[in-house]
Design a protein that fits this description.
Blueprint (H helix, E strand, L loop, with lengths): L1 E2 L2 H6 L12 E2 L8 E5 L2 E5 L6 E5 L5 E3 L8 E9 L6 E10 L4 E15 L3 E8 L4 E8 L5 E7 L8 H12 L3
Antiparallel strand pairs: 1-9, 2-7, 3-4, 4-5, 5-6, 7-8, 8-9, 9-10, 10-11, 11-12
Bound molecules: zinc ion.
């Protein structure tokens, strides 16, 4: 799913589909620049040099603090997650054109959901760039886990059990 603007991408889903809590920008481990929102601007700040790229969420006007980073392309990921129930996230991949000071591409690359029934905990995650979807099925009583991967498909966020049924249908053919 692609978006025309960063503002539109952030409005894609503002509350958790399961607990209805507000979704938040997550810290991404190992990421060099953690995105944060301040005064209606999103900042990608380098932890050591403190240099940043920032984008106005309404106008898309871009500011670059680094004198070295004024040309070319900059890629980053933006993870949106539910900090309350921890059962939902999506990750945008962004491509900045630093020369033109525009965002050339904003799309959802990953989504993930977690849910359970009386016997199992399920985690379903997909990735556009890896062209796959993964199901982790954990038997609650023993903690035994099975991980199975399939070619990419969208997750039915509102009813993830539908996606689970589709994947379990595919297991029969493995
Ligand atoms: Zn939630």
């Amino acid at each position: 799913m692609k978006f025309n603007s960063l503002g539109a991408a952030l409005r894609y889903r503002e509350t958790c589909p399961y607990c209805k809590n507000n979704l938040e920008v997550a810290r991404i481990p190992k990421s060099t620049a953690h995105p944060t929102v301040m005064n209606n601007r999103m900042y990608w700040r380098e932890p050591i040099t403190n240099e940043f790229i920032s984008v106005d969420l309404d106008t898309e006007e871009m500011e670059i603090s680094s004198k070295d980073r004024t040309q070319g392309t900059y890629y980053c990921a933006l993870k949106i997650t539910c900090e309350l129930c921890d059962s939902y996230y999506h990750v945008f991949n962004l491509k900045f054109n630093l020369t033109n000071r525009t965002i050339e591409c904003i799309e959802i690359n990953n989504q993930g959901v977690e849910f359970c029934d009386s016997d199992y905990e399920y985690s379903i995650t997909n990735s556009k760039s890896f062209e796959k979807i993964a199901l982790i099925k954990r038997y609650i009583k023993t903690g035994d886990e099975k991980i199975i991967e399939f070619p990419y498909m969208d997750i039915d966020i509102e009813n993830p059990v539908n996606t689970l049924k589709r994947l379990e249908g595919l297991i029969a053919y493995l």
